[in-house]
Amino acid sequence: MSNPEKNKNLNLEQLIEKAKLAFANIHQSAQLESEKAKYLGKDGLLTSELKDLAKLPLEQKKTKGADINNAKKILEDLLIKNRQRITDEEINRKLNAQKIDVTLSGRKSHRGSLHPNTITRIQIEEIFSKMGFAVADGPEIELDELNFSALNIPEKHPARSMQDTFFIKDEKSVLLRTHTSPVQIRYMREHIKNSKPPIKIIAPGRVYRVDSDATHSPMFQQVEGLWIDREVNFASLKSVIAGLLRIYFQAPLIKLRCRASFFPFTEPSAEFDMSCVFCLDQQGNTKGCRVCSYTGWLEIAGSGMVHPNVLVSGGVDANEYQGWAFGIGIDRLSMLKFGVNDLRLFYENDHRFLEQFNPL
User: Fold this and answer.
1) Mean pLDDT over all residues of the chain?
2) Are 265 and 151 in contact (CB under 8 A)?
3) Which residues of 142-167 are buried (b: 16+ CB within 10 A; e: fewer)?
4) Is pLDDT of 2 > 50?
5) What is the mean pLDDT of residues 39-57?
6) pLDDT digits (tens, 9 = 90+) for 196-213
7) CA distance to 129, 187, 198, 200, 278, per residue, from 132 (Å)
8) How many CB atoms lie within 10 A of CB 126?
9) Where would I find the H helices in the chain?
């Protein structure tokens, strides 16, 4: 940095030429402002000339003062010109650094898609809507009374141990629902206020149980169906489930078999197995494969005729009406259709897995 004391003998013309050369060799805004201070700053060369005016006679003051003001104007003009030059240079450097090569191939935009379980749920709702079923919904944080007691599962009933439940802390009567069956009770009670059956609904949604392995998750999705009328029976139940599976898997030759089972909210109760879609041939026969453990059958749904106690809990006259109900895991259907062998993959949020279901 130049010392102003060493430059006091410079005349104004030399000072201007020196500043002009210094400004021209600067390419950074901060450096230019620093150089400006040497000439126009508090202790700058031109400022020193102004201070020295007091020592001169009056006539010389006028002449010298005019020359200093003219030199100051020239320096300020030089600063403006070089500021603009440096600004242009900085912009050009940025543009060159960020220059787009138009010969490069374009970057493909990635579009998201629905989660596979959401795809399955939408398809299920569409299928049942065409069968005349309404879609019902309810809260996931549920009352013990609706999740258990109203479904013929009173306190200390051994069936409660079949479902490991998430209870809300300090609220033993509040829990995360273990199935969507409470939606059926809520719908019956609300519907029966205004009209009589038939009641024909499905209740899809998230449910929660303390369980986690390759085929179980603490949170999973299921869809339950309910049809209440005077003459509904197992034949219509089998027909509806068969219709769902044949349309969903696009396999019209799927067969169903019924096995006796136990559920406290249905009587009699049954479980349905379907033909294994992985080894189903064009004649509707199954050869057996690894997926079905070489049996030719896949367990698919729990079901049964609605227990009279459940009808009464829903406000329905059990002497006049009867009904059936079923439950199917949405995740289970997704696993079968998309060939997924570990349920946990659906909930790990790994885009490498999920993007396989993006059709675009």
Assistant:
1) 86
2) yes
3) bbbebbbbbbbbeeeeeebeebebee
4) no
5) 75
6) 899 999 999 999 988 766
7) 5, 16, 11, 7, 30
8) 12
9) 12-24, 29-40, 45-52, 58-97, 116-130, 144-147, 181-194, 234-248, 308-313, 330-338, 351-354
Instruction: Please give the structure tokens belonging to residue 225.
Output: 């169906």
**52 three-class SS:** helix
Nearest to 252 by CA among 265, 261, 241, 242: 242
Q: Which of 97-106, 221-230, 236-245 has the lowest mean pLDDT?
A: 97-106
What is d(CA 3, CA 44) in angstroms, rounded to the nearest whole number?
9
Taking the C-alpha atoms of residue 228 and residue 213, their distance in angstroms, rounded to an integer, is 36
Q: Of 350 and 124, which is predicted with more confidence?
A: 124
- β-pair partners for 205: 222
| Phi, psi of 73, rounded to the nearest 5 degrees | -65, -40
Do 223 and 328 meet the contact criterion of CB atoms below 8 Å apart? yes
Domain ranges of the chain: 4-97, 116-357
- Terminal-to-terminal C-alpha distance of the chain: 64
Least Cα distance to 226 among 251, 201, 246, 191 occurs for: 201
Inform me whether the pLDDT recorded for 6 exceeds 80: no
Q: What is the rounded average pLDDT of the residues 2-7?
A: 45
Residue whose token pair is 């079949």: 162
Closest CA to 8 of 47, 64, 61, 36: 47
> CA-based angle 241:243:244, to the nearest 5?
65
The CATH H-level (homologous superfamily) assignment of domain 116-357 is: Bira Bifunctional Protein; Domain 2 (3.30.930.10)
Per-residue pLDDT at 313 exceeds 90: yes
DSSP 6: G
Rg (CA), the chain: 42
Is it true that the peptide bond before 198 is cis, omega within 30 degrees of 0?
yes
